[in-house]
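task queued by scheduler; priority normal; single chain, no ligands, no partner chains; default sampling; output format set to structure tokens
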Amino acid sequence: MTTWNPDQYLKFRNERTRPALDLASQIEIEKPKRIIDLGCGTGTSTEILANKWPQAEITGLDSSEEMLSKAKAAHPNITWVKYDLNEWIPDKKYDIIFSNAALQWINPVESLIASSVEALNEGGAFAFQVPYNHDSPYHTCIIEAASRPQWKMKMEQVINPLRYDSIHYYYDLLSERVSKINAWETRYFQIMEGPEAILEWVSGTALQPYLKVLGSEKERESFKADLLNYYRKAFPASSDGKVIFPFNRQFLIAYK
């Protein structure tokens, strides 16, 4: 299991939280009674839900004890549950099932989507957001670095650990189960201090499975140095020295 570092993840709190705000703002339910946040991480997305619907019973679910410890410390009044999302079977009915940047880690995801819709009350919403960067230098540079001879043998089992499914794929899974779907894609142009900041960003999320298979901190730092060289070529500096980092995300809200 990947070990998550909440402090590393929160280095870009605002950028990581903005998609959750965008997703929550589009949910057309005024007074939900019960909400669950799947893959809640440090609880920043769960906090958004609690602020928007303070009357609701809200639960945050995540598999990482480190992330949940951070969430519990910041928001002791919210219910936090440690559970592997790959194995989660709902035992309650919900008005909103929410997930911000978590479903891309679930394989297969079909059963989770089916059980989530089944767990909705009539009129309830299953709302989720997933990164969609399969053809972005952000992703392809990792694949290229991991495929170098010195890393390939150790990393061949973890190359491409994330799902990059299309809107059409999710639509086909959901359309026969729900009454209405709202779907869209957003490209966020994130202004970063330089390629080093992009490396810091990826070190908190998508790079975790690659770093885990390396046996020492020296190896991990060496691999990150290789990846940084790829990012320096892929993301040229702007006139002020900063780097524009495009990041695509797909959003779906399905109403039962």
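post-processing summary
- DSSP finds eleven helices and seven strands in the chain.
- Residues 6-255 form a domain with the Rossmann fold fold (CATH 3.40.50.150).
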